[in-house]
Amino acid sequence: MRKVLFIAYPVWLYIIFSLPALLLSAILYTRGVDLITTNSIGAMGMVLLHMRRKRKKMAELPAMPWKRILMVTGIMLIPVATLTAGLTGKTFFDMHLTPWLINCTWSFFWISCCEELLFREFLITRMKKADFSRWLILMLPALLFSLCHRPESVSLLLQRAVMGIVLGYLYFKKGDIALCISTHWVYNIILYTFQYFLPRVTTMYSASRAALNLLLCLFSLLGIVVAYSINKSKFAGHS
């Protein structure tokens, strides 16, 4: 039984950090601070604690590829920014951009790092070492990942579980945490941008144009993930 207790480790971290994160959210929300921004502080705490304690002891893992994370994320954002500017760019001029910029840079960076380090790198590495079946390695971390988001509906539970399976498959096959973090980071930016600017885009253009931009951005992200997976060395260089 003790050999599989590591499965509860990400959930335990979420529980430990959830109360102070909720209290901080309640305090800062009254001052106009976005909830995603306050939640990212809890995510940052989990990343720093995990890297200082658990990850440091996992000798089989390489050093964190910070440079490659930023490089791959930047490459992924080029077509996303180009498409968004071309299809919905005029909507940005009259919007309050500070919360959007903070979340797209600071918040989603820490959130993506936290979730990928815990639910992909840590769990999948340890489950492989413990000889879990391939399907369980893909399904169980994805389910825990979705549940820790406290989904409000079955559809959101399934949506995040599918995302967890896709990211888990990437890590299972490639063992590249940089690819997972960058993909997760840009995916969050795409969805958040769609939701944040949807009312303004619908008013100025149409809802279908906003949906088209979302789909094209997601397809561009998928294309880059595939290209990176096929030839990582030429695509992203070595770091």
Query: DSSP strand (E) fraction?
Result: under 5%
Helix content: over 70%
Could you tell me the radius of gyration in angstroms? 18 Å
Overall body shape = globular
Overall structural domain count: 1
Structural class: mainly alpha
Low-confidence stretches: none
Number of strands: 0
Distance between the termini: 39 Å
What's the order of the H and E elements? HHHHHHHHH
Q: Mean pLDDT across all residues, rounded?
A: 90
Counted by DSSP, the helix tally is: 9
Largest sheet: none
Please tag this protein with its features.
single chain, 239 residues, mainly alpha, 9 helices, globular
Secondary-structure topology with pairs:
Layout lengths: L8 H21 L5 H23 L8 H23 L9 H32 L4 H14 L6 H21 L2 H28 L2 H24 L1 H5 L3
Helix pairs in contact: 1-2, 2-4, 3-7, 3-8, 4-5, 4-6, 4-7, 5-6, 6-7, 7-8
Please tell me about this protein's structure.
- This protein has helices at residues 9-29, 35-57, 66-88, 98-129, 134-147, 154-174, 177-204, 207-230, 232-236.
- The mean pLDDT is 90.
- The protein has one domain.
- Helices cover 80% and strands 0% of the residues.
- It contains nine helices and no strands.
- The protein is an all-alpha fold and 239 residues long.
Quick rundown:
This protein is mainly alpha-helical and 239 residues long. Helix content is 80%, strand content 0%.
